[in-house]
Structures are given as C-alpha cells and as structure tokens.
C-alpha cells in the first residue's frame, strides 16, 4: 500500500479526535489513549468485521454462512477487484463470486460501508436455490441481493471446529486483511464472530466477540458497531486514468504489444498496471504485467505462443495502491498460421484431476487422461507418465510406471491412469466408474499408477515421455486449478510445441475417458509405415572387471524415425532373472549409459547383459555379452592373510582360513610356535556397506557412521536412485551385532544436534552389507530391499537410522590373532596355518620396527663459508624409504639445496630431516650449524670529503673498508647520483590531499609546490618534519626527480623516506608506473610511536618517464563523500541480497528497488550499496542476467558505488561455474569505479574502499565456493588496510539457527578474530533475518574490546521472491550507532517481520565508534639514490681496515660529481656505500702521478681547450668544447659536458633526397645528415647554424630549420630559429637529417602535407581531421596515415590551438621550467600569455604528458572564452571528475561540445586521441 504524506496523517489524526469523542458512548470499552495513537494510514482498506461459520442447516449443511466486509476508505471500492481466500494449513482457496447479476460482476462497497458475502455450498448444492428473502428472514435483516448482499462459491463452506483464516487479497495475491477463528467454541449457530480493526497497523483483524462468550451475540450481517472500524478512513486520491488505443489485429507469428498512457495526479503514488486477456475457449482471464517505458507510458507483451486462437479479448487494469480502474474490453482478431496438424503431439494429456472424493483420508480417484492423436493404435509400453515439480526443474521429475505396461490406446482413444495411494488400494474400477459416472474397463482403457498422488494446491506438471526420455507432450496446472472432481481440461498446442493449452479448471465436471471436440485437432497425426529396425551397438569397453569397481555399460542406438525405448537387461552369475532398466540418451555424447554398481558384482564370476531398442513398431535385440568378474575370494584349501616377503610392523592381525572348515579346526603358528591363546573368529576380507539413495539436497553433510566415527559423507545432490557403497575394513566387523548409522546431516555435520539447525530429508532402500564372496546381509528390521526408508528432520521422520547386522558364522571363517611384532626381533619370521585335512601353508615375512637411517651432509656445530650443499642420505634396510621431509629454520626445503654463507643470514641455523619408511617407522634428525655475517662493513669516506669543493679535476677517491671476518676485499668505485631537497631543480616536491588511495592521476590537481621552507625541513634527518594532516581528504607528498641523462634503464634506484605518522596509521611509499599508468605501492608500514623508514629498490627503467621518476608518500586514503549534518543519521549504506527471483520472475520489484535507491541518494544520504549474492536464479538463463545488468546500471548512472558477489545460484551451485558471473559482473565492470580496490580472480572476490564523514571502510567480498586460499587473500587485504573499519560480505555465513556455517567458523577464527578492524559480516542465502553479536577481547585482558555484528538478511521466502525488502544501514555519528532498518520500495513498507511479534529482527541499533579519524604524513627526510653501473675504477685486493683509492681523471672544471663504493669479499659478501658528492675546481694535476690502485674504466675527460674542425669531422674528448663546420654551409657548436662520452661527429650532405620530399616541401638549403658515435641525446643543447638561399623564399615566407622524424617519416619544424642575414641558428639535443625550408602561405607547409590520409576513410572524425589538416593546424604522416587513435600530448594539443587561432607567438620566454628547451616552447609560452593554460604549478607544465579529457575541457573553455556554467553532469563516473574541471566539463557538455561514452561514462582521466582532439577543437573554436 502506498503511504500518504505526513501532513495527511496529521489531518486524519485531528479528525479522529473529533469523531472519536462522538462515538465514545457507544464504545465504552475503547481506550482513548490507545486509539489516539493509531496511525490510521497503515490500516487495511478492506476489513472483515464479522463471520458466521455455523448457521441453520439444510440437509445437514450450513445454509447461511456469511462474511461481512467493510470499506475503510473515502471512496467506493468494487470487491470484484479483490480476492476472498479461505485458508488453512497447506491450502488457500479463492472463493469467487457466484451468479452475480451485476454488469461485469460488480460488487461495489460504498465508502465506510459494508457488504455481506453469502457462502454458497457448491459441493452439495444445498443452498443454491435459496433467495435473499430466506437469508434476511434467518437473520432478521433487510439486505438487497447484488447491492449489499452477494453470493460467493464456497465449495464445502467454512469448517466449524478447526482453525481457519478468511483473507481479503489483492488480485496479485497480496494479503490485505485476515480474520481468523480457532475452534468449535467460537463457532456457534447464528452467533457472530466479531472483529475490530488492527490498531497495531498489521493485517490481522482483532477478534473481540464469538460464540465462546458467556453471552454470545447474535449475528448482525450488514450492521457495523462503530468500535469495530477506524474513526478515520483511508483517504484516496483520484484514481489513475487509462488512455489506450485499442489493437484490433494481431499475427500469431509476432508478440502482441499493447501500450497505454496511465496518468495519476498523486506523484508520490506508484501505479502498477496489467493486461488481462482471454482466448475464446477460455473461461478465465490470464494477466501479464505492464512495464514503465517512459513518463506515464506503459507497455505489455502477450507472447506469440499465447495467440493460439483466432479471437482474443483483453482489458487494461491499473492500481495506484488505493483505487483500481480498468478499461473497456477490446477484441483482437488473430491471424493464425495455417495449422500443421502433423506437428501436434501424437500423445496428449487432455484431462487431469488432482483433487477428488476421498477414500479414507486421501483422494481416491485422481487420474490423468492420455489421448492417442494418431491414425494408428499406440502401445503405451514404449512410453511413461512423468510427474513434474515445476519449481524444481526436470531433475526432480518422478516417473510413474503403470501396473501394466503393455496397454494399447486406439486411434482417437484414451487411456486413463488412475492414481493409487496408500488409502485406495482396495478400491475397484467399479468404484472409479461410480464416482464419475463412466464405464471404463481396467486393463483396457483404465490402468493403475501407484503414487502418493498429485498436489492440490501447488504448481505441478504431467509429462508424457518415451522410455528414452524424449518428451511428447506436457500439461501444467497451478495452485487454484484443482477442485474436487472437477477436470483441468487441456486442448492441443497450435504453435507446433509440446505444451498443452489449459482452457478450463474448477468448473467442468471430470469426464475420464472422453474428450471434447475442442480438445483435439480435426486431423490426427498420420503414422508412416516403418519397416526398418533400429540399429543397436554395444560400446561397453570392459570384458573383464575387478569386482570392487563399478561397471559402466554403454550402448549406441539409432533409428531413422525415433527411438521410443532403449532397455538394458542384465543378470549376474547368482541371479536367476534379468534386471530390466530403461535408458535415456546422454546429452553429453548421445549414447546410452547404465552403471552397475560393485555391490551387485561382488562374489560373482561373470555378468551377462543385452540391449533392446524399439521405435514403437520394430524392435532390435543384441546378442548377450558376458563380462568376466575378477578379484573374487581365494578358495584355496588353506589361506593366510600375509604372503611371502610382506613387511609388517607394530601390531598385525594374522588370519588363517580353510575352505569349508571351521576356524576352530585350524592351527595358527609363528616361528613354529602354535598360538593357543587370544585367538578369535574373524571376517577374512573387507566388505561394503551399500544402499540406494534418492532426494539428497545440496550442501547437507549426510553421513555413514559407526558410533561416533564418520566413515563417509555424501552431500552432492542425488535426484534419482543411486547406489552408494562404502568400503569397510574387515577388522570393523566383529562377531555378534555390528551397528552402522545413516544420518541426515545439517550444513555443518552429520552429528549436528542443535535443534535449530535444519537437516536434510532423503530416502534410502536396500541397505545391506556385501561381503567379498557376494553374500548379502540385512538388518532384520529392514530386510525388504524395496522398502523405502525416509530419513530427515521433518515431521514423523528420524534424522538417524541404526542398521544392525549380525555377521553369519560362514563369514567368520578365519582364525585370527593380533601379533605384537615389537616383541620379536626385526628380520625374517615364519607364519603357518594348518589343519589335519588340508595340510600346512607357510608365509615368510619381514618384521621391521626400525626407523630409516638418516645421514645429513651438514655437520653438527660447524661453521660453513662460501658455497655448500645441504642434503641428507636416507636408507632403510628392510621396508625401504617412503618419503623424506626437510626443514631449514622451520621452512620446508627441497634436497639437495645449494646455498652459500652469503645467501644465508649470518648466525645459527637448524636443519631438520624427517624420514618415513614404507611401514610407517619414522626417524627425525636435527643438525645445528652456522654461517658468519659475510657482509663487509659499510665503506667509510676518506677523500674527498662529503660536499667538498675545489676538488682537483683529476680527483682522487678514497675509502676505508673493513670486514667482520677480516677477509681481503675487492673495492669498486662507480658513478652515482643522489637527489634530495639539497638538489632543487632536479628534485621537486608537492603537497596535497587526494580522493583515492593511491590517487588516480600521476599529478593530482590542486596540489601545491613546496616552498624553500618546506625543502629545509626535509633536507636532513634532524627531527624537523614537514607535516600534512587531513580528515576528509587524506594527505600525500609527491616528489619528482629529473634523472641525469647518463642514467641507464638497468641502473638501481633506492628510494629512502624517513618520518612519522599518527600511531596505528598505515603509510605507503609509491612510484608512478608509466607502463601501468598508476601508482604502484613499493613499501608499507603501520606507524608506531617512533619514527620509521620506508625504503625500496627499483630499476630506473621501470618507473622513468621522460627521464623523470615520480615518488609519493601517503597515509591511508578513502573516497570523500559529502558531509551530512542531519540529526538522525549522517550517511547510509543499502544492503540487498538474493534478488534471484526478481531477475527471474518479478523484474518490476528489482526495478523499484534500484530506482528508489537512485531517487533517494541525496535525502537518504546513500553512499554505497552492498549485494551479497544470488543475483540471478538460473546462471545459464541469459534473460535473468540481462535484467540484473539493467537494474544495477541504474546505480551506476546515479553515481552510487556498489559491490556484488556471486551466490550459489550465480555459479551453478556446486559446479562453481563462474563464466556467466564473469561475463556480467567481472572486474571489467567495476575497475573504473572510484571505490574499487582490487579484484581476486575476476571479481570472484574484491574489496571497495568507502569513506564518509571521516570514517573509512573496507568492504571485502568473497563469492560462493571459497576455501583456504581465498581466506588467505582476505587476510592479506585486511592487513593492508588496518585502519579501515572492515565489513565482510559473503553469500553464506549465518544460518537460520543464528549459528555460523562451517566455512564461516573458519573465517571467524582465521580472519575476524585476528583482524581488529573487522566490525561486521553480512550474508544472505538462507530465508531469514538473524543477528549474532560476538564480543572479542583483542588484547587478552579479559575485557572485550569490540563487538562483531554478524547478520543474515534474506527475504526471498516472502511472496514474489521477497517483496522488495532490503536493509538500510544508517550511521549516526553523534551517538556512535548504526541504525538498521528493513524497507520495501515495492510496498513502501518498513519491516517484513512484525516488530511486535519479532522485536529486533528487522529494526535494531548497533554500537560502534564512529569518530572521524585524522590522517598524517610527516617527512623528516627523503632521498632518491641512483647506483649506476658506470665504473670509475677498482682495487682488486684490499686488506680489512685499509684504504682503497682510485683517480677519476679529466673531470670538467667547476662541476659537481657523485660516486659510491662497493666492497665485496671472496665469499659473496657485499656492501654498498652511500652516494657522496664533490665539486671540481680549476687546478689540475697529472693523473699519471697518482700512485693509487686504479684499474679505472671511466671515460677520458678532455683537456680544457676548444677542439675545432672544418672538414665536417670531429673527435671531441670528454669535457671539451668543440666546433665543426662543413663547406662553410653548416656549423655545429658543442658545449663542454654535452656528453659523458668521447664524441665522434660527422656531417654529410645528401644528394639523393627525392624519397625524403613527398609533401611539396620547398628547400632553402641542402639536406645534411649529422652523425655521432652513440645513440643517447646530448645532455646540453647543441647549436646548429645553416646558410640558406633567401631567393627561395616567396612573398611572406620565412626560413625555418626542420629535422626528419625517422619513425614517422615526416619533417618537423625546430622551434626558436634565429635568423641573421642568410644564416639561421637553432638549438637541438639530437642528431638526424636537417634542412632549411620555406614556410608560409605561398608554399605547402610541411605541417600541412598535401597527402591523402589513407586510414581515416569512414572514421567518425574524418571531416574534422581533414579540415584541421587543411588549416595547417595538424599534420598527417609521410606514409599517408593520420593515426587518429594515437594519443596526443599536452604540448601537441596546445600547439594545434595556437596554430588554429593564429595567435602571435610570444617568443621562447617561458615561465615553465620544464618547457624552456621544448620544441613547443613558443606555442606553450603563447598559450600561457593568453590565459589558455596555467600548468600543473607556476613552473611546471608537463609538455610531454598525454593530455586527459578533463584537462582538454579546461583548456578549450579558456581558449574559446566560453561563459562558464556550473551544474552537475549525468555521467556515471561524475565522482571521478576533478574539482577544478567540474565547471569546464559542465560547460562543454551543456553546449553539446563534449560527449560521454556508450556506457554512460566520461572517463575524465582517460587519455585523448588525435581524432577526439581534432573534433573538440573544431566544435568549440570554429565560429
């Protein structure tokens, strides 16, 4: 019911007070306080106010029973729009109107008035002819029929003495009000049972008077006491208005689509609508719901398979929760396909009666009628009737074999299957015929089927199938179709299908054996004569088989028409008759399989079998095949259970057996000594406990036990009888009784004795012991192998059955003795058995009670140095070695293990070896050894001192080295680089707070560059911290390091951060990965009270981008949500679960749920949604995934983050098939969601990071079928985020008993207890709502430190799959509580469970610390050290404690250098120094004068002179300046230290240039190629000066230098050329081909090549690209391509804009330090001067960074000078748009300049392509 506004409720309460004061004299018993507190808006709109179940009789039956119904609204209601239901346990029957004479069956009830429903006893017909005057006379009333007195079809009427409910329902089955009575005392003749309205707002009317009262009141039909009804009615709004254009014509080939416009004046009311339709032959209407397709637009689809007749009637009905309106009835003419009667099923179910006159306590005459729709007689022996549980699927089908198989059905004749149960077995055909007035003949057209019968009040199906399982026809009925002795009638399908069309139920009297013309087609199916027999092949592989194995028999059968029967006949050696089994075709391989289980084979020497196959006319029989069965019992005259060579140990049971002799006649001896004491009779061989079982359900741990020992668990589903056999060791079977149990288990254990836990229900039969010789023994109580034994915890069942087996003496044939072998010596011993008639046999055995010998390769107490191998030699003299296990320092290792003293930590080690021999003897050896600390001491700097200046350019480097073992050391000196706050320029810092952990961007917006004061705080480890704190947003410090060009990609980079945070916070060190485009965590520490270090080693090439490395330190981060200030709660989460039935059958409920969440995102402060699984019901049904996908996208569109997991229904239960779930809800769907953390196995598990109002949460999800590996992953995740409040989400966790499931117990012990941040675990799966609170003592002080709230909430057991109930988790920070509420958007109703009856079940509060948390990053020092592989020199041997020195020669003057030393001993120990720095001066010494050990491999450094050449060739020493020219046409000037290598340079003029000039380029000079001896770029700019020909310049053309881009095969202009006369100079950092060219309008500019772009034809941006190319703003490539999907950099994007706008360039003066020498520096400077760009900071622009979509938006708004527009955009990833870009994105999208993607996202941090850039620039800038 839709709730009215608060204002209306207040108005109602005011009126209530006024009216109640007037009613008080008539309501003396009313409690004024109670009444005034009633919320009248919650009361039922229709109420039952009086019942009379017992009245004056006619023919011994009540004649005047009635129900009084009151209209509790302000509008007239029509009772025909509602149901009256008569209910008792297990049965609900709708009592429809009877002979209503009003138009359309109207039964109007005026506002605040009543009508009386007179119950017609239609079963006996005793009061059908009475008149209204009779009724009035009986009760002294004056009611008028069809005005306020109406008749209803009440069957047999109301029961007088048993509990019953009378219920008023909506047409969809939803209860409105319920009136109940309990016993005979309350039902007295002509005495009313009176009810008052339910003041508690429930549906249950309150009985206040009945026949049980001392002065019982007479019935008063039509008269209401004012105290019975509310003083204030429900106030209805205007009813909906239906607008509809009728559809007059339809085609059976297509679905019939009906559309309507349904207007409703009350916007807060939800209107539901349905189409009701009826075929001409149908007596009742069917309905299909209408779905909302737009504003007031509704649509319904009647499936084409329903259009089976030429005439269809329909009307539309709408309900707003108060009023129901309907349209006129419209007629549709249906064009039918020309019927192909040959496609109608040959056998059809034409009538079913599930409810009949009783015999005893059960239906006595249920039947199924089958019609032969062929032109030939059909022998039903090839077919069977199957009873189907429609809600359980075909796996639950039950074949119903008839007493007689060989039954002939004549053409157009019928065969009636009479259901025989445990009550009517003695009934005769004459009884059956008498009940129905028929004349059927048993054995001819009537046959018996033994079964419990058909359900009267459930959905079921009847199937006619061949014996091979092929369905011929199916007929279905639903609850409400059955009525005693009334036929459910079916007609033939007209769509070529197999499903019969139900056209009548509960109306027509049953007619078994006869059909109506409408039921059958006018033409029968013509049977073509068939003379060909089926082909039949035996494909069974085995011809011999061990008796302990199951035998699979396989046949292949084919027929040119169809196979009706494939049967297997088999018998074993000891069976006298063949067993017959019908076989079905396997879906897997189209063959026919049957498993003969080992218990049938044991003790037999062979089994014979053959196949038969029938096509209904012809039959094929295979030859009999024999399978030899091996492994049977030994029948030698004397036998021992030990053989020659057997190895025995400990206690061994010896058995001697003689064939056919008593064990007492045997003599058993060891080493010649007869055993006369302690012998006993024993079973010789192992046996089997076997039984057939059916009905086993998922996940119940059913068991076979002996006492308290579990022998076997069976928990996989078993839907048809299957044989289970459990091996039993002979030692288990003793003389006398042997008890074994079959137990129905819970989900936890077969021994679960908790009363609240559900156990499985299943049935078994043929429970037996099978011995090795085939002997079968039964418990005397269960000796009938065909008797079904039901086991379980349902009423009347036992969850455990004991089976007691007495072992026959023939099986206790062995003489046995338990030999304690430890009492004799190891070695050979002799065991004999003998008797007087059989002689003696002997076995020689080995006794081995000695453990293996273990000889480790490691000596006890020894110190090992250098390389060595850890191993062990293991031998065993007698039994032999079985396995060897080794541990090193308690960790498993594989032997042999090669290692060294340098690889192992210095100090003591423990090596443990455990060896086991083949009879279980164990030897463990432990060895202690040690290795020294091989690592040398840290090298100590001698000279030059750290930071020294004026150092000789031939620098002497010296360190002191020492080794704890006094080993000689090799010392190597290498070049290094240290970057920290003391090296500003190459080391830059930024401060900020991001929205995610880590941030999504490389350079987050709104960060601030560090100041000189900031740098001073982080330059040294001095306790002076640079601190950033935050609560909502969370702090980080980012550092950008510009690497020296000399650094190689393989060089080691050590990042070292020192600082502190708040105790308990998690702080992480990150580096930006240019390949992954994300921040990668390198090191994490949980802060304590002291300072800590974050240190990580990486390779330069892994993280360098454009010679820069980005490093970040950050406290734990969360998604920021808006602060809420509501006093009730501050933010909320929504939790839904088990939506499978909504996806499958009730999509409108799913749609309402997600729409409500989206619509109430703001007012309910919804930050996040949880879904705990079972998204769909059937994983292989795509339509269910499509519905769920559509519905969950509503949340995505609304920008509400959510998480899901897979339930058992999503993955095929125990199949654990995640393929469907992966397709629809894999990690691809969530990875761009800002809260999404990390996926486990494609979203099988994942976690989300969610925060609001200073509280950080981690939501951890794990899907169905998890194990230890998944639990370990959950632990790893929680350890990464110890400061976040953790909520764990599973599908199964809590049971309905409020106990944990077995796997949940593991989670509780291994995850929840050790992780202090876990606050809750949520689950669904079971139909219930439970809360379990466990206090946990984290510090073991005896006082609980936290509560863990474990909750189950799954409402799918309610009607319509759960009625849309879901949980609201409302967080109240002020009071530290989570307020849990349960709400249904579908019903607009709180609490599925009545709070008065179930307090705290659906609404409760949880205590939790919700204080906001401060996050902190406090840096004391950070440095980035790069250890290169460039060796300066080395000293091979240095004594410990001595100095090592080398000379670094020929260094540049007045230049800073850095270096480090490595000390290494002969055993692999190695220690690397810190990086030291010095600066050279100007005075130089001869390096040859140095007497230090060198061996240096460093490059030579030039003398301080300029080297020149004029022949185009030059060799330039390291550190020197140089100049080389060629033909006075080109000059190259190289500054000192432009390279760290000797430079060899060559200038060549190219003569063959046609392949280089393909775009009409105009040369103003020759083309020159500049070559050098290495590939690296120069460290410093090199100046090129060219002479050009001014005459080649036309008009306003200018000269410009271009270089040839070898990769893209095009010429690129070098920016910043300076012209001096006929010479032009430029600065470059690399060599290639160069030339001077003319640029300007008179020629084709190389940036606008006149080429045909061959890769944009048909591209969506083709026209935009061509326009920009023609404008000279962007260019294509030499190969004729444009590469529209290539990414574009920030510099390239700005350059296009500057060119397109033709802005006057500002020269190379650039405020951005990182663009000072960039090719686009002029364009960047121009854009900055025009206010188009601002850069990341005042000094950084990031020209080579790829531009993002949001950056592009900001630049375009500035470039076009657009009026900015604030407002929210509708993209699903709005939350990912940076704050600074919100206005720009809104501006461009509102003007249509920028669009999102098909999935509804913008991808603001997504990178932009050349095509996208071209399009946007033209859209925005083109005027």
From TrEMBL:
Q: Which residues form the SLH domain?
A: 1648-1706, 1707-1770, 1771-1823
Tell me if Acetylation is a UniProt keyword of this record. Answer: no
State which residue ranges cross the membrane: none
Report biased composition (Low complexity) as residue ranges.
Answer: 1481-1502
Q: Which UniProt keywords apply?
A: Signal
- The LTD domain covers 33-180, 334-481
Per its UniProt entry, which superkingdom is the organism in?
Answer: Bacteria
Q: Which organism is it from?
A: Paenibacillus chondroitinus
Q: What is this protein called?
A: S-layer homology domain-containing protein
Show the segment(s) annotated as Disordered. Answer: 989-1011, 1481-1513
Q: Where is the signal peptide?
A: 1-30
The family database entries (Pfam families) matched by this protein are listed as: LTD, Metallophos, SLH
């Amino acid at each position: 019911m839709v709730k009215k506004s608060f204002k209306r409720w207040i108005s109602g309460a005011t009126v209530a007070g006024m009216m109640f004061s007037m009613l008080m004299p008539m309501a003396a018993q009313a409690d004024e306080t109670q009444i005034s507190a009633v919320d009248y808006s919650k009361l039922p709109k229709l109420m039952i106010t009086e019942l009379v179940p017992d009245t004056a009789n006619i023919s011994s039956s009540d004649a005047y029973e009635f129900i009084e119904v009151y209209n509790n609204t302000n509008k007239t209601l029509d009772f025909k729009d509602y149901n009256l239901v008569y209910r008792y346990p297990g049965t609900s029957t709708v009592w429809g109107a009877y002979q209503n004479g009003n138009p359309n069956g109207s039964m109007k009830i005026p506002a605040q008035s009543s009508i009386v429903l007179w119950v017609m006893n239609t079963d006996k017909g005793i009061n059908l002819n009475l008149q209204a005057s009779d009724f009035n006379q009986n009760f002294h009333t004056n009611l008028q029929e069809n005005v306020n007195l109406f008749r209803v079809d009440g069957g047999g009427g109301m029961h007088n003495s048993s509990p019953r409910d009378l219920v008023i329902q909506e047409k969809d089955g939803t209860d409105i009000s319920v009136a109940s009575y309990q016993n005979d005392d309350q039902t007295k003749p002509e005495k009313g049972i009176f009810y008052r309205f339910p003041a508690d707002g429930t549906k249950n009317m309150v009985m206040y008077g009945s026949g049980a009262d001392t002065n019982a009141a007479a019935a008063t039909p039509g008269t209401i006491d004012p105290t019975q009804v509310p003083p204030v009615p429900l106030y209805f709004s205007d009813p909906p208005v239906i607008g509809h254009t009728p559809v007059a014509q339809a085609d059976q080939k297509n679905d019939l689509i009906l559309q309507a416009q349904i207007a409703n004046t009350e916007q807060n009311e939800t209107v539901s609508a349905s189409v009701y339709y009826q075929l001409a032959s149908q007596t009742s209407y069917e309905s299909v719901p209408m779905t909302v397709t737009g504003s007031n637009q509704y649509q319904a689809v009647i499936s084409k398979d329903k259009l089976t007749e030429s005439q269809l009637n329909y009307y539309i009905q709408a309900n707003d929760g108060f009023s129901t309106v309907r349209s006129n009835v419209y007629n549709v003419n249906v064009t039918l396909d020309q019927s192909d009667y040959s496609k109608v099923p040959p056998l059809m179910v034409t009538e079913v009666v599930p409810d009949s006159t009783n015999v005893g306590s059960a239906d006595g005459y249920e039947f199924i009628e089958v019609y032969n729709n062929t032109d030939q007689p059909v022998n039903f022996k090839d077919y069977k009737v199957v009873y189907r549980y429609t809600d359980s699927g075909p796996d639950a089908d039950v074949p119903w074999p008839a007493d007689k198989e060989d039954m002939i059905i004549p053409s157009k004749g019928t065969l009636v299957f009479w259901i025989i149960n445990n009550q009517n077995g003695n009934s005769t055909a004459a009884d059956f015929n008498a009940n129905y007035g028929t004349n059927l003949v048993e054995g001819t057209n009537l046959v018996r089927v033994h079964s419990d019968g058909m359900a009267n009040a459930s959905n079921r199906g009847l199937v006619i199938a061949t014996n091979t399982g092929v369905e011929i026809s199916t007929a279905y009925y639903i609850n409400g179709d059955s009525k005693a002795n009334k036929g459910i009638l079916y007609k033939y399908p007209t769509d070529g299908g197999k499903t019969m069309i139900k056209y009548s139920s509960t109306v027509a009297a049953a007619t078994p054996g006869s059909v109506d013309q409408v039921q059958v087609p006018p033409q029968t199916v013509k049977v073509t004569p068939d003379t060909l027999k089926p082909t039949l092949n035996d494909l069974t592989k085995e011809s011999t088989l061990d008796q302990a194995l199951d035998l699979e028999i396989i046949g292949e059968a084919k027929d040119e028409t169809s196979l009706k029967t494939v049967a297997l006949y088999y018998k074993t050696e000891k069976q006298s008759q063949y067993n017959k089994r019908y076989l079905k075709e396997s879906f897997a391989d189209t063959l026919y399989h049957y498993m003969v289980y080992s218990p049938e084979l044991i003790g037999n020497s062979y089994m014979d079998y053959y196949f038969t196959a029938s096509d209904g006319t012809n039959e094929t029989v295979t030859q009999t095949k024999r399978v030899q069965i091996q492994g049977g019992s030994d029948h030698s005259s004397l036998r021992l259970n030990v053989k020659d060579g057997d190895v025995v140990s400990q206690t061994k049971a010896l058995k001697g057996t003689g064939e056919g002799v008593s064990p007492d006649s045997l003599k058993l001896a060891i080493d010649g000594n007869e055993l006369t004491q302690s012998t006993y009779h024993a079973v010789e061989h192992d046996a089997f406990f076997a039984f057939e079982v059916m009905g086993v359900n998922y996940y119940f741990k059913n068991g076979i036990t002996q006492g308290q020992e579990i022998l076997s668990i069976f928990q996989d589903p078993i839907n048809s009888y299957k044989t289970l056999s459990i091996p039993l060791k002979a030692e288990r079977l003793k003389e006398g009784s042997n008890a074994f149990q079959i137990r129905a288990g819970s989900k936890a254990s077969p021994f679960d004795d908790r009363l609240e836990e559900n156990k499985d229900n299943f049935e078994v039969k043929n429970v037996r012991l099978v011995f090795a010789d085939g002997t079968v023994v039964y418990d005397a109580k269960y000796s009938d192998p065909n008797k079904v034994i039901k086991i379980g915890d349902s009423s009347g069942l036992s969850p455990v059955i004991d089976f007691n087996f007495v072992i026959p003496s023939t099986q206790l044939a062995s003489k046995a003795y338990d030999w304690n072998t430890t009492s004799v010596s190891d070695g050979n011993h002799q065991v004999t058995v003998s008797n007087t008639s059989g002689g003696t046999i002997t076995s020689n055995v080995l006794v081995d009670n000695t453990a293996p010998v273990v000889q480790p390769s490691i000596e006890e107490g020894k110190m090992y140095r250098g390389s060595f191998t850890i191993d062990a030699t293991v031998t065993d003299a007698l039994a032999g070695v079985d396995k060897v296990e080794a541990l090193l320092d308690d960790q498993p290792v594989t032997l042999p293990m090669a290692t060294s003293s340098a690889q192992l930590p210095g100090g003591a080690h423990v090596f443990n070896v455990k060896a086991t021999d083949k009879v279980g003897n164990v030897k463990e050896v432990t060895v202690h050894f040690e290795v020294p600390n091989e690592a040398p001491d840290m090298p100590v700097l001698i000279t030059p001192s750290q930071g020294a200046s004026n150092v000789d350019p031939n620098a002497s480097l010296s360190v002191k080295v020492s080794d704890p073992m006094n080993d000689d050391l090799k010392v190597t000196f290498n070049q290094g680089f240290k970057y920290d706050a003391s090296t500003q320029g190459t080391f830059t810092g930024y401060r900020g707070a991001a929205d995610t952990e880590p941030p999504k961007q490389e350079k987050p917006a709104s960060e601030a560059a560090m100041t000189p004061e900031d740098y001073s705080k982080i330059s040294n480890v001095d306790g002076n911290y640079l601190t950033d704190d935050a609560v909502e947003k969370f702090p980080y410090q980012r550092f950008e390091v510009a690497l020296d060009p000399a650094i190689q990609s393989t060089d080691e980079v050590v990042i070292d951060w020192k600082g502190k945070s708040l105790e308990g916070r998690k702080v992480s060190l990150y580096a930006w990965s240019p390949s992954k485009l994300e921040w990668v965590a390198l090191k994490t520490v949980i802060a304590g009270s002291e300072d800590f270090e974050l240190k990580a080693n990486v390779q330069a090439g892994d993280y360098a981008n454009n010679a820069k490395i980005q490093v970040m330190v950050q406290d734990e981060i969360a998604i920021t949500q808006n602060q809420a200030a509501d006093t009730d709660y501050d933010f909320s989460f929504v939790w839904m679960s088990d939506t499978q039935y909504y996806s499958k059958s009730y999509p409108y409920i799913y749609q309402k749920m997600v729409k409500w969440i989206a619509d109430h995102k703001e007012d309910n402060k919804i930050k996040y949604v949880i879904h705990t699984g079972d998204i769909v019901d059937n994983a292989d049904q795509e339509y269910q995934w499509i519905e769920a996908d559509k519905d969950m996208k509503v949340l995505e569109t609304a920008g509400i983050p959510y998480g899901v997991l897979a339930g058992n229904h999503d993955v095929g239960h125990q199949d654990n098939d995640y393929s469907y779930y992966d397709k629809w809800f894999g990690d691809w769907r969530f990875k761009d969601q800002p809260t999404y953390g990390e996926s486990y196995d494609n979203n099988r598990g994942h976690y989300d990071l969610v925060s609001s109002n200073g509280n950080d949460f981690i939501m951890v999800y794990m899907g169905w079928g998890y194990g230890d590996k998944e639990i370990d992953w959950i632990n790893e995740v929680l350890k990464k985020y110890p400061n976040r409040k953790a909520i764990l989400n599973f599908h199964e966790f809590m049971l309905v008993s409020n106990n944990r499931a077995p796997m949940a117990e593991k989670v509780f012990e291994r995850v929840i207890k050790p992780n202090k941040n876990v606050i809750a675990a949520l689950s669904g799966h079971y139909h219930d709502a439970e809360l379990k609170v466990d206090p946990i003592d984290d510090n073991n002080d005896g006082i609980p430190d936290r509560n863990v709230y474990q909750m189950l909430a799954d409402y799918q057991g309610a009607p319509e799959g759960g009625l849309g109930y879901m949980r609201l988790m409302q967080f109240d920070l002020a009071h530290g509580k989570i307020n849990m509420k349960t709400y249904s958007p579908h019903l607009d109703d709180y609490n599925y469970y009545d709070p008065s009856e179930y307090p705290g079940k659906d609404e409760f509060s949880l205590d939790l610390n919700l204080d906001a948390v401060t996050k902190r990053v406090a840096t004391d020092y950070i440095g980035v050290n790069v250890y290169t592989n460039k060796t300066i020199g080395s000293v091979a041997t240095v004594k410990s404690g001595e100095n090592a020195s080398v000379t670094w020669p020929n260094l540049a003057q007045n230049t800073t250098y850095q270096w480090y030393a490595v000390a290494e001993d002969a055993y692999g120990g190695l220690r690397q120094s810190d990086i030291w720095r010095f600066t050279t001066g100007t005075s130089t010494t001869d390096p040859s004068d140095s007497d230090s050990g060198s061996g240096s491999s460093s490059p030579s450094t030039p003398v301080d002179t300029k080297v020149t050449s004029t022949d185009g060739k030059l060799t330039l020493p390291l550190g020197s300046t140089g100049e080389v020219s060629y033909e006075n046409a080109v000059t190259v000037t190289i500054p000192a230290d432009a390279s760290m290598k000797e430079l060899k340079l060559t200038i060549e003029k190219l003569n063959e240039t046609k392949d280089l000039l393909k775009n009409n380029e105009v040369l103003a000079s020759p083309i020159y190629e500049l070559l050098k001896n290495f590939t690296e770029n120069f460290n410093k700019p090199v100046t090129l000066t060219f002479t050009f020909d001014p005459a080649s310049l036309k008009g306003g053309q200018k000269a410009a230098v271009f270089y040839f881009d070898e990769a893209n095969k095009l010429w690129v202009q070098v920016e910043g050329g300076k012209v001096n006369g006929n010479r032009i100079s430029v600065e470059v950092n690399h060599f290639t081909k160069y030339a001077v060219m003319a640029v300007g309008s008179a020629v084709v500019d190389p940036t606008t090549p006149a080429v045909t772009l061959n890769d944009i034809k048909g591209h969506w941006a083709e026209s935009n690209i061509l326009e920009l190319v023609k404008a000279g703003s962007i260019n294509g490539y030499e190969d004729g391509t444009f590469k529209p999907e290539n990414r574009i950099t920030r510099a390239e994007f700005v350059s296009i804009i500057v060119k397109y706008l033709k802005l006057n360039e500002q020269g190379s003066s650039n405020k951005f330090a990182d663009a000072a020498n960039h090719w686009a520096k002029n364009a960047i400077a121009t854009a900055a001067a025009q206010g188009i760009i601002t850069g990341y900071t005042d000094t950084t622009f990031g020209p080579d960074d790829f531009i993002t979509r949001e950056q592009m938006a900001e630049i375009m708004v500035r470039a076009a000078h657009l009026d900015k527009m604030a407002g929210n955009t509708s993209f699903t990833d709005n939350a990912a748009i940076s704050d600074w870009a919100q206005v720009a994105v809104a501006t461009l999208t509102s003007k249509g300049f920028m669009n999102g993607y098909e999935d509804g996202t913008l991808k603001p941090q997504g990178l932009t392509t050349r095509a996208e850039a071209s399009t946007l620039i033209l859209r925005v800038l083109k005027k």
